[in-house]
Amino acid sequence: MQQSPRAGREGDVLAVVSQSGPTVSFYDVASDRHLGTTEVPAEPHELCFDPTHRLLWCSTSYRSGYYHANSGRSTRLTAIDADSRRIVEVIDLAPEHGPHGLALDPARGRLYVSVEGSADRPGGVVIIDTATRRPLGRIDTGAPGPHWFAIDPTGRRGYATNKEAPFVSVVDLDQGALTAKVEVPGSEGLAVSADGTQVFVAAPYLGAPEGHTPGIRVIDAHTLSVTATLPTEHVVVPVHVTPTGRLLAGQLRMTPDPASHLGRQAPGRLTVFSATTQERLGELEVGLFPLTVHSSPDGRLAYVACVSSSTVDVIDLETMSTLTRLDIPKRGEPGAHGLAYLPRAA
């Protein structure tokens, strides 16, 4: 008999951002019970869990709204105690602004934060010391709007996607320098394979002119060139690679709506590929506007945060079935965004 996907998860917690909350909500992974909510500075976007210091990092990109549809860029990064769920510190990154993508290197004690550019300099990546919670430096990415950021398993190379710029920025994290630009249409989310040999990039970006096949560009990390495109019917924003080698992609289904920045939504789709063979393994319906995808440490469960419906779909990847849908509190538009899985403390 197959073991229940909930088995052995007692004490594990799922953290979910609500942009208009503005909050981070916490749920018991084994039972889906709501454990509490932490108010954070408006308007939170992404989450990243540091298991060494038991800190949950939350980026605040804008005072309100989205990229190119906001009331001003924020400069704040919030550190939350993962167990007490209390804010430890709000770090002001000024003059850096528009912090968004978060990537952790626990071995070196570094948190990488993508930030948007300004009139006097391009966008870049700010390096945070996770012990002192202070900036160590900055790496330029050569584009105005680096949005998502990921590092390889060695912690020596990073990749930033750029919405309008037609390339993925490749940075050397030891040298602190931009080393290459891989030609890709303006792009959204990205993920690196477990062995570091491939980078999966969602492109074109949401709102891009027609003319590019929607899907996932596969970059060879050795040659730094695109070797394949995994086509999808609709534009993909979030991508994620599970520890078991599944590539998860969230497809948006929408039509323009003058009354909403987010458009008129239809249920999105989670599409699952093999990260090694690139075979399509399955697909199922999720909420409106999937914006973030994450998985449990064993790769059995997937979590899909959908910003327009403000829901999180919890999916069993072995059976490709939806176990439940969490309703994330919001105070307006938008709703659910960043996700983090917090294993229980040893």
UniProtKB/TrEMBL annotation:
Matching entries from InterPro entries are given as: Host-pathogen_enzymatic-act, N2O_reductase_N, WD40/YVTN_repeat-like_dom_sf
Coiled coil feature spans: none
What is the protein's given name? Surface layer protein
Q: Which organism is it from?
A: Streptomyces fodineus
